[in-house]
Amino acid sequence: MQGRVLSGVLLLGSLVGGCTGGLDPTQLPREAFLRGRVIFRGTWPPADSVLDLRVVAFQHYPPRNVFEEIVSGRAVFSKERLPFNVELAPYELTVEQPPVVFRYIIVAQQYGPDLFRHWRVVGVYGRDSSQPDSLWVEPGEVYPGVDIVVDFDHLPPQPFE
Amino acid sequence: MVDPGRWGVHIGLGMLLAAGPLLAQQPTAVLQGHVVEAPTGQPLVGATIRLEGTLLGAVTTRQGSFLLRGVPPGEYVLSVSMVGYRALRQAVRLQPGDTLRLRLALEPQPVGFSEVVVTAAKRAQTLQEAPVSIATVEARAFQERSWSRLDEVLRTVPGVTISRDQVSIRGSSGFAFGVGSRTLLLVDGIPLLSGDGGELKYDALPLLAVGRVEILKGAASALYGTAALGGVIHVLTEEPSAVARYRFRLYGGVYGRPRFAEWDVGQRGLWGLDLGYGQRWGSVGLVLSGATVRDESYRSAGDSRRWQLFGKLQWAPSAASTVTAVGFYADDDRGNWIYWASLRRATAPGNPDSAQRVRSRKAAVATQWQQLWSGYLTSTLRCGLYWTDFANTEPGGHADSLPQSTASALSAEWQWSGQLHPQLLWTAGLHGLLNGVKSVLYGDRHQLMGALYGQLELGAMRPVGITVGARLDWERTEGASTQAVEASPRIGLTYASWFGVQFRATLGRAFRAPTVAERFAAVRAAGFTVSPNPELRPERGWSAELGAMDTLWLSLWRWRLRLFADLALFQSDYYDFIEPRFEQSEGAVVVRFANLTRARVQGAELILRTWLGPSAPWAPAGMLQLEGGLTMLEPRDLRQNDWLRYRARRLFTISGTLLLPWGELQMEYRYQSRVERVDEELRNLQLIRNADVRVPVHVLDIRATVTGARTLGLPLALTLNVRNALDYYYTEVPGTLAPPRQLLLQLSGEW
């Protein structure tokens, strides 16, 4: 009887020792990174109308609202705010869940106190601001040179409501 | 500021002075006898005697004897129950002036099969009499497993899940950082939710102080008022034993090193010590216990040190009167872990204030006076004051500038129960609750609740039992825009069929008043900005259940098999569900509690238990106990037409205990399907990295106990516990890795 119990315990021990599973950090989709420079031209707007400045990458074009797209997971944004009153600002944008296609990558300016509505597009990734370039982002890849020109004197078309 | 302590004295005195005249006495009978163990004839101490359908009952003395005086003449069913023995029911007929003497023999049987519960009707009744689903966990089941917190106990109960500080019974709750529990916690009938956040504090009591835990599943506001929306957890503390009882538990062990190097924080361990003592001297009984736990944690900033003290003094000046005083204190100092840095760095904190430490203290004093005025009338007066305090303390001070909250919850209840007719019982009561909060998070606030409740039970009218009741609650919170009046009716039916199956049905309404924290939280902590919402209204719900249970006894030569099955179908509809939501306030994103949605949870639950094998001197009822529970849930957010957040749809537990000549082996497996949905905003707004990674839960615990009484003749037991033996990695809440494999050795003793 006791021999059987011991055999059972040993079998169980080997099963338990051999089992693995659950969360695995090595199985995460590898993050991708967009890197580039934001080149500022023209006259900077008054300080009280530049409350925030971010690079935002949207999966759909045209987006209707910066905040709604981010909350719904259809857009990602640079975690650090871009500096004000400079000519050049490097940035990095982390993409946690590639692969994904970004069809509209912009620099967005928060010009008023309402975080949900007071945003405008001040720069668009692409050769022509009315026809933005798309970017296919693969896991684990780094995409350098995603430069965006911001010309405060000639703002691009505004897609937001 | 109103002092809840002074209010408690006033309420208590008021209730005493309001005691009404007693009912007129009638010619009565006496019932007395002895309860013994069937195979040996040894007297059984502490067996519960009840006359079903009445308020009359007793507990056997050291000699196994009992005495019931003042029994109204009539026909009754006498029930005798005791943990570890098969319940006995016997018909008795009493004439005026009779003295009936009985000798009652109980057969041994596994723990957990014979259950007398007190939560469903605020009085003792058998499980079969209750029109709702109730699970019970006996002290022995958790004291051998090196557990130190109540949530570890609750995880083993079918249909119950834990999301950090939130208990979800059959999908009633999600995850809201512990604030606003939809499950009411009672300790000996007194509510134990913190006055500020309405939180359950699992670590308030040492587990050696706990005698039994009852879990009522479904709406229970008709008797208990606010917070009993999803159910009730009722902790019944240890009773003083007839002879001196000394107990200890010393355990220690290590966390397994994780398989992934990026999670490894070095070798960490935990240890704990519990001491307990209880004794009764004539009419006075005393229970004392204390515990300390030191946990180094398997993650950075997660370590904790905890002290707990508990005392209970019981005085029975007469056979009809008992006064009980209970007090406890717990002090916990821990790292301020809120969420991880990322899944890759799952054992490193990600909340910016993780360098702080949190000191959390809880204390309670409670008194209860039970008086049997006659065979027809009894009353219970309960008063309790529960004090909680937490403060985040940085090394080096500056505690005043950091989040802090002190709260008191004063509860006073006067319950009366009586018998209008041999087959008609009534229960009625008044209940008042005053929460006082002093906090940099919520301000200085008061919340006052008052209630009136009543219930009629046609319990003895077999085969059909009917319970009808309702409770009217009024709630007002200083600074809130509205005051609430809530009516919570309930109807329950039981039917003992001719073919043996016991059916039950219940329909009840329940509510939960918003807590001070949900209404007034104004804080920026752990990377979140929380904004107040004084407009918050109570959330409400209707809960319905149909259930059936049966027990089969099968004998084959020396083998005996007992199969218990319980099936429940249930549906809960919730209105004005309070959930945290992300919204704008003055141009910023804030978290605010709001009456957000309409929800429905439908489901089915099947529980099976069996005990089989040949009888032996060391296992009179058999060798193997198996118990399993399967809960299927459909938790829907009806407004968004989507799954409710943080709910698993399939829950499954199974445990097997093998009794051996030298001790026992136990395996317990717990499964939860992958949570369907979490707060997407946590990920998309980059508040918590990898907030939505989630997997099904597979947890296997193994225990081997060598019983000294059987091997060496010593009152000691040595237990090896392997928790999460599969070393399975999972989360219960976003950004928090659950404990990996742990190996613990426990030495316990009792004499």
Outline the structure in words.
The complex is a heterodimer of chains A (161) and B (751). Chain A has 161 residues and is of the alpha+beta class. Chain A has one domain (27-151): Immunoglobulin-like (Sandwich). Chain A is 14% helix and 34% strand. In chain A, strands 2, 3, 4, 5, 7, 8, 10 and 11 form an 8-stranded mixed β-sheet that branches. A two-stranded antiparallel sheet of chain A has the order 6-9. In chain A, β7 and β8 form a beta hairpin. Chain B is globular. Chain B is mainly beta. Chain B has 7 helices and 44 strands. Chain B has 2 domains: 4-108, Carboxypeptidase-like, regulatory domain (Immunoglobulin-like); 129-750, Maltoporin, Chain A, CATH 2.40.170.
Helix content of chain A: 10-25%
CATH class of the largest domain in chain B: Mainly Beta
- What's the average pLDDT of chain B? 86
* Backbone structural class of chain B: mainly beta
Q: How many distinct domains of chain A?
A: 1
Along the chain, the helix and strand elements of chain A come as HEEEHEEEEEEEE
- What's the assembly state of these chains? heterodimer
Q: Would you spell out the secondary-structure blueprint of this structure?
A:
The complex is a heterodimer of chains A (161) and B (751).
Chain A: H1 2-18, E1 21-22, E2 32-41, E3 52-58, H2 66-71, E4 75-77, E5 88-95, E6 100-102, E7 104-110, E8 119-124, E9 135-137, E10 142-143, E11 148-151
Parallel strand pairs in A: 2-10, 2-11
Antiparallel strand pairs in A: 2-5, 3-4, 3-7, 6-9, 7-8, 8-11
Chain B: H1 4-17, E1 29-37, E2 48-51, E3 57-59, E4 65-71, E5 74-82, E6 85-94, E7 99-106, E8 116-117, E9 125-126, E10 133-138, H2 139-143, H3 150-154, E11 160-163, E12 166-169, E13 183-187, E14 190-191, E15 210-217, H4 221-224, E16 231-237, E17 245-255, E18 269-281, E19 284-295, E20 304-318, E21 321-335, E22 357-374, E23 377-393, E24 404-421, E25 424-439, E26 443-458, E27 464-477, E28 484-496, E29 502-512, H5 516-520, E30 523-525, E31 528-531, E32 539-556, E33 559-585, E34 588-614, E35 624-637, E36 642-643, E37 650-660, E38 663-672, H6 680-684, E39 697-707, H7 708-711, E40 716-723, E41 728-729, E42 731-733, E43 736-737, E44 742-750
Parallel strand pairs in B: 1-7, 13-16, 31-34
Antiparallel strand pairs in B: 1-4, 2-3, 2-5, 5-6, 8-9, 10-15, 11-12, 13-14, 15-16, 17-18, 17-44, 18-19, 19-20, 20-21, 21-22, 22-23, 23-24, 24-25, 25-26, 26-27, 27-28, 28-29, 29-32, 30-31, 32-33, 33-34, 34-35, 35-36, 35-37, 37-38, 38-39, 39-40, 40-44, 42-43
